[in-house]
Structures are given as structure tokens and as C-alpha cells.
Specification:
This protein is mostly helical. It has a single domain, classed as Up-down Bundle (Four Helix Bundle (Hemerythrin (Met), subunit A)), CATH 1.20.120. The chain is built from seven helices and two strands; from the N terminus they run αβααααααβ. Helix 3 packs parallel to helix 7.
């Protein structure tokens, strides 16, 4: 795992992370009325159960994947190239797992419009973020190192043929705990969606609009 040269300023990564969180917060505020005051137009039944269970399964996969990825990357993102564990399967496992979580939340909400919005935003925004991060890494690593990594490991679709994982690995526990805080968002939103739906079905929560 070659060290980055020269090391990236830590503040640049903090700034990028704050920017993503700020954009996520803005989107959440805009989507809140859609989530809290709308309901689907079809009758309750097996289709609802299918959406909820599929969404929950994707959220669980997202959480496991993000925890696994954070174990390897937390605290090392601005220090060296990580090419083992989930990073030997795909170059951006955190983004892939977040996409699964977004699809899971969209399905669990039983709101097909929200699902389409979430998928569209991820497909539009995160590829550009990933490309920018790759260019930064390539510029700071010794010539050819990152090119070799990109030849082995795909950007978003996992390739299990080159999977490798060390027997031991040093984890930055402080950074890992910080990263785990981001994972809590997914089950918290799932519980929110289920609570709102239960209240709406019981006519204890207003439904201002019926959506597909």
C-alpha cells in the first residue's frame, strides 16, 4: 500500500466531507414534505411487504458494507492507497454501499417517486465525486501506481476475482467510530418511514398527496 506523496492536506478531506453532508442535509430538508406528507396510491398488500423487505435487506447490506469499508479506510484516506479488503473488489465501496442504502430507503418508503429521485441523485452526483477523488489520488501517488490499481479494480461494479485481505490490519478506532455515525442514518430513516406509514394507515398522520 504505497504512501501518498506528497500527503494531502487533512483540511481538504474535511472540507469535502462537510460539503457532502451539507448537500445531503439540504436534500433531506427538500424531501421531508414528500416523505412525511405523502403516501402511495395503491392498496396495502403483498406489494408493500415486498418493497419493505427488499428495502430492509438492501439497508442491512449497506450497513455491513459501509462498516467493513470503514474498517479499512477510516483514518487512512489521506495517507496511503488502500487496495485490500473491499478496496480490492471496487474502488469506491462506500459509495456503492450508500447507493444500495439509498435504493433500500426508497423501496422501504413505498414511494416510487422518492426512489426515482434518490437513484437519480446518486447516479448524477457520486460518479463525479469519485472521478475527482481518483484524479487527486493519481496526482499524489508515485507515477503509475494508481493506474495499476485502476486496471485491476473496477470503479463501481465489484470484481471478486482479485479479492485479497490481510490476516491482520491496524484499525484507527477513533476515525472508525466517527465513520460508524454515518451508518446510523440508514436504520434511523427506515424506522422513520415505517412509523409514518403506520400512523398514516391508522389515520393518525395527514396524507396531503397520493403518489405512485
Amino acid at each position: 500500500m504505497p504512501a501518498l506523496h506528497p500527503p494531502a492536506p487533512a483540511h481538504s478531506f474535511r472540507t469535502a466531507r462537510r460539503s457532502r453532508r451539507r448537500k445531503s442535509l439540504i436534500f433531506g430538508m427538500l424531501a421531508a414534505p414528500l416523505i412525511l406528507l405523502s403516501h402511495h396510491s395503491w392498496k396495502e398488500g403483498a406489494f408493500d411487504e415486498f418493497l419493505e423487505l427488499t428495502g430492509l435487506a438492501l439497508i442491512v447490506l449497506c450497513m455491513i458494507g459501509r462498516i467493513w469499508s470503514s474498517m479499512f479506510i477510516a483514518g487512512y484516506k489521506n495517507q496511503k492507497l488502500i487496495d485490500v479488503g473491499p478496496y480490492s473488489l471496487v474502488r469506491h465501496p462506500l459509495y456503492v454501499c450508500s447507493f444500495l442504502g439509498a435504493v433500500g430507503l426508497g423501496l422501504a418508503s413505498e414511494n416510487l417517486l422518492l426512489l426515482a429521485v434518490l437513484v437519480g441523485l446518486y447516479l448524477f452526483y457520486y460518479p463525479w465525486v469519485a472521478i475527482g477523488e481518483e484524479r487527486d489520488l493519481a496526482a499524489r501517488l508515485p507515477r503509475g501506481v494508481y493506474d495499476g490499481y485502476t486496471e485491476r479494480v473496477p470503479r463501481f461494479v465489484p470484481n471478486f476475482a482479485h479479492f485479497r485481505s490481510p490476516e491482520t490490519y491496524t484499525i484507527n478506532t477513533r476515525k472508525l467510530v466517527q465513520a460508524l455515525g454515518d451508518v446510523i442514518m440508514f436504520p434511523a430513516l427506515y424506522v422513520l418511514f415505517e412509523t409514518v406509514e403506520t400512523l398514516q394507515v391508522a389515520h393518525a398522520w395527514p396524507v396531503l398527496i397520493r403518489l405512485p
